[in-house]
């Protein structure tokens, strides 16, 4: 009887100490991120740019959408692990303040600490029909695009960071690029790449609001 008791105790101890009994390591997202969002009535390009800037120098996570603002990739070398950072379409979704319901208009602010990606892929931006909250522009001319518009292909989407033209050509863009480069402001020539289309969010409020003109009583919305 004593031998059986010892054996049972040994087995229980083994079960408790074995790797199958240990709690899994918490992901960066589960340890740091939380829900925090609210509806907004409007969005300026200048405010969207500030928002996107908080993601610069942070990480990249496929399907991700949560980051801090310490200018460090806190989960570098750990791809697809619930790590820090957005992916390319998640960054555009949050920066543009899009709604979670596919195709819905309106604006929602999301905390950078909220792990939300949204329903859109890069291809959804590239193939936009115009019936949703964004549309494809007729061309990629610098006379047509504005900062905080995007360049989208079937597999990647980036935001135009500035209307200024780099000395070597191309555009300044902010993008969640990949696990190695993270989220950065880069110089890319997506404008000259036929795989990319220029895409614009609808219903921007002009940066000049509320001082766009004397006597204005409501935001002037531009497509």
What is the beta-strand fraction?
15-25%
Give the termini distance in whole angstroms: 82 Å
The chain-level structural class is alpha+beta
Q: Sheet bearing the most strands, described?
A: 6 strands, antiparallel
Strand order of the largest sheet: 5-10-6-7-8-9
What is the residue-mean pLDDT, rounded to a whole number? 88
CATH topology: endopeptidase fold (from Nostoc punctiforme)
Give short descriptive properties of this protein.
223 residues, endopeptidase fold (from Nostoc punctiforme), alpha+beta, two-stranded antiparallel ribbon, six-stranded antiparallel β-sheet, 5 helices
Summarize the structure in words:
The model is unreliable at 1-25 (pLDDT under 50). The chain is an alpha+beta fold. It starts with a helix and ends in a 22-residue tail after the last strand. It has a 6-stranded antiparallel sheet with strand order 5-10-6-7-8-9. A two-stranded antiparallel sheet has the order 1-4. It has a two-stranded antiparallel ribbon with strand order 2-3. It has helices at residues 2-17, 28-32, 45-53, 88-95, 122-126, and strands at residues 37-40, 65-66, 85-86, 107-110, 134-136, 150-152, 157-160, 171-178, 182-188, 197-201. The protein has a single domain, classed as endopeptidase fold (from Nostoc punctiforme), CATH 3.90.1720.
Reconstruct the topology from this structure:
Layout: H1 2-17, H2 28-32, E1 37-40, H3 45-53, E2 65-66, E3 85-86, H4 88-95, E4 107-110, H5 122-126, E5 134-136, E6 150-152, E7 157-160, E8 171-178, E9 182-188, E10 197-201
Antiparallel strand pairs: 1-4, 2-3, 5-10, 6-7, 6-10, 7-8, 8-9
Helix pairs in contact: 3-4
């Amino acid at each position: 009887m004593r031998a059986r008791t010892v054996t049972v105790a040994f087995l229980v101890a083994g079960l408790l100490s074995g790797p199958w009994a240990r709690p899994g390591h918490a992901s960066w997202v589960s340890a740091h991120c939380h829900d925090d969002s609210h509806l907004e009535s409007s969005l300026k390009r200048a405010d969207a740019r500030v928002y996107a800037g908080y993601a610069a120098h942070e990480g990249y996570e496929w399907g991700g959408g949560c980051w801090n603002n310490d200018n460090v990739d806190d989960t570098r070398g750990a791809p697809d692990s619930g790590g820090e950072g957005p992916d390319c379409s998640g960054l555009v979704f949050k920066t543009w303040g899009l709604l979670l319901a596919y195709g819905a208009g309106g604006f929602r602010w999301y905390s950078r600490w909220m792990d939300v990606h949204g329903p859109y892929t890069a291809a959804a931006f590239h193939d936009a029909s115009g019936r949703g909250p964004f549309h494809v522009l007729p061309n990629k001319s610098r006379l047509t695009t504005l900062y905080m518009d995007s360049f989208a292909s079937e597999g990647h989407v980036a935001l135009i960071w500035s209307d200024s033209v780099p000395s070597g050509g191309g555009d300044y863009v902010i993008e969640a690029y990949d696990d190695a480069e993270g989220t950065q402001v880069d110089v890319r020539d997506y404008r000259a790449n036929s795989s990319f289309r220029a895409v614009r969010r609808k219903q921007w409020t002009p940066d000049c609001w509320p001082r766009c003109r004397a006597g204005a009583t409501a935001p002037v919305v531009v497509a």
